[in-house]
Amino acid sequence: MLKEIPKPLTILDIGGTVDFWKAMNFNEPDVRIILLNLEETPNVSAPFVSVKGDATNLKEFADQSVDIVFSNSVIEHLYTWENQQKMAKEVQRVGKYHFIQTPNYWFPIEPHWVFPFFQFFPKRIQYWLTQHFQLGHIPRKPNFEDARRQVDEIKLLSKREYAQLFPESILYMEKICRI
Q1: String of b and e for 22-54 (b: at least 16 CB within 10 Å)?
Q2: pLDDT, position 3
Q3: Rounded Cα gap, residues 127 and 62, in angstroms
């Protein structure tokens, strides 16, 4: 998709890391990548720039000031639908184009806990499991408040919700099996 956009260009990567781009073997000339995180990443070098910021309030950026806003699995970590709406609005305000990836609520294995149907369990069971077991990428949180905070941080989106957040966008669905 990048090949169709004239260079030079700027990508704002919300929640991004240098390691991610290196793992993707990204090596496009004339592309500047701004990594936006809650804390600035020290010691980054070209083509990367690191800035401290908040995905729900991209006040550092003017309207349509970046070519592409990219984010890989951040929008589901914003605790509330209201925060997800704020991020979506900011993404569309700041970027000429955007590519926002997130796991699907209806996928049978919850991708953070890597546990079948975890997202469908009542919150009290999710808290209990998080407090008593390390599951997937989520370390065990022996303190109840830490377990609650961890569970409440993640709000997976359905296709319908995603379409509400990005009504003018093309939605691409990843498939793991094609029959």
Answers
A1: eeeeeeeeebebbbbbeeebeeeeebbbbeebb
A2: 80
A3: 40
Q: Work out the end-to-end distance of the chain between its first and last CA atoms, rounded to an integer number of angstroms.
A: 26
- Picking from 31, 9, 36, the residue whose alpha carbon sits closest to that of residue 90 is 36
CA-CA-CA-CA torsion sign (158, 161, 165, 167): positive
pLDDT of residue 174: 83
Instruction: Write out pLDDT tens, residues 133-152.
Output: 999 999 999 999 999 999 99
Phi, psi of 127 (to 5 degrees): -60, -45
Residue whose tokens read 């609650």: 148
Q: Are 14 and 74 in contact (CB under 8 A)?
A: yes
Question: Which of 145, 162, 18, 136 lies closest to 76, judged by CA?
Answer: 162
Average pLDDT of every residue of the chain: 95
Give all strands of the β-sheet with 31-37 in edge-to-edge order.
48-52, 31-37, 9-14, 66-72, 95-101
Tokens of 18: 């240098």
Q: Which pTM value belongs to this model?
A: 0.93
